[in-house]
Each structure stands twice: as structure tokens, then as C-alpha cells.
Amino acid sequence: MAKGNIDGFYQVYEVFSKRNQKGDFQHQFSLLAPNREMAFIMAQENFMRREPVVDLWVVKREDIRMMKPEEREMVKRLDNKDYRLTKGYGYLKKKWRQYEQNMLDEKEIMSWGEMGKEGRKKTQ
């Protein structure tokens, strides 16, 4: 008996759908069916009548290759790509706000000129 074959008659199928032309395929559910055509019909009946769908994929579970445990471990070691994530730039907004607060505005600069005039008047 095959891995995805239940009771020698039914097989497990995975259903993927796409809601719009620009969207990605998403896994929706698994179903049991005697063959590929029946699985497709069952997927249409169970899913397409409830939600708008542009495309539908029905795939026999045993045809999907999954990663082996040793392959998962290898990916974990190679998955050190924090430098690619943009979360490291989150502090820039706060830093920019502090910089802007410390910047001199026009009124403050003009007040320096007035202070200089007052100082000159007192010395004269």
C-alpha cells in the first residue's frame, strides 16, 4: 500500500487555489478521492462555490517532495541572513526625529542677530 493511499482505494490530495491573477497559490485543504479527476471535482464543489477563485491546483500528496530532516538542519545553518532583513533600519525614524529636533530653525537663528544687536547697544 502506498504512503498516500488509504484503504487501497482513496488517495490523499492537496488543494491549492489562487484568488486573483496577481496573487500567489495558497494551500487550502486536503481531501480523499479515488482518482485525480474526482479529486478536482470535489475540490471545485467544496471550495469554488464559497470563494472567488481564478485557478485551482489539485496535487496527489505522494507526488509532493518534502525535505528530509537532515536537509532541514542544513537549511537552518544556511539561514543566517539577518543582514537582508530591513528590521535593522527601524531605529532610523527615531534617530531622524532627534536630529530634526536638534536642528536650528529660522526664528532661533534670527534671534541670535537680535542678541548681537542688544549686546552691541549695551557696549556703545
Topology:
Elements: E1 5-6, E2 10-18, E3 26-33, H1 36-48, E4 55-60, H2 69-78, H3 91-102, H4 106-123
Antiparallel strand pairs: 1-2, 2-3, 2-4
InterPro entries: PaaB, PaaB_sf
Protein name: 1,2-phenylacetyl-CoA epoxidase subunit PaaB
Pfam family, one: PaaB
Question: Can you put this structure into words, describing what you see?
Answer:
The chain is of the alpha+beta class. The protein has two domains: 5-70, Ubiquitin-like (UB roll) (Roll); 79-115, no CATH class. The mean pLDDT is 79. It contains four helices and four strands, in the order βββαβααα. The protein has helices at 36-48, 69-78, 91-102, 106-123; strands at residues 5-6, 10-18, 26-33, 55-60. Strands 1, 2, 3 and 4 form a four-stranded antiparallel beta sheet that branches. The protein is 43% helix and 20% strand.
Give the gist of this structure.
It comes from Siminovitchia sediminis. 43% of the residues lie in helices and 20% in strands.
Can you tag this structure with a few keywords?
124 residues, alpha+beta, Ubiquitin-like (UB roll), 2 domains, 4 helices, 4 strands, 43% helix, PaaB, PaaB_sf, 1,2-phenylacetyl-CoA epoxidase subunit PaaB
Looking at CATH, which topology of the largest domain would you report?
A: Ubiquitin-like (UB roll)
In CATH terms, the superfamily of the largest domain is Phenylacetic acid degradation B
User: What general form does the structure show?
Assistant: elongated
Supply the CATH class of the largest domain: Alpha Beta
Estimate nothing, just give the exact number of structural domains.
2
**Main beta sheet, described?**
4 strands, antiparallel
From the alpha-carbon coordinates, what is the Rg to the nearest angstrom? 33 Å
Number of beta-strand segments:
4
Low-confidence stretches: none
Strand percentage: 15-25%
Distance between the termini: 108 Å
Overall pLDDT: 79
- Kindly report the oligomeric state of this protein: single chain
CATH architecture of the largest domain: Roll
Instruction: Please bin the fraction of helical residues.
Output: 40-55%
Tally the helices: what do you get?
4
Structural class: alpha+beta
What sequence of helices (H) and strands (E) makes up the elements? Answer: EEEHEHHH
Protein name: 1,2-phenylacetyl-CoA epoxidase subunit PaaB
Pfam families: PaaB
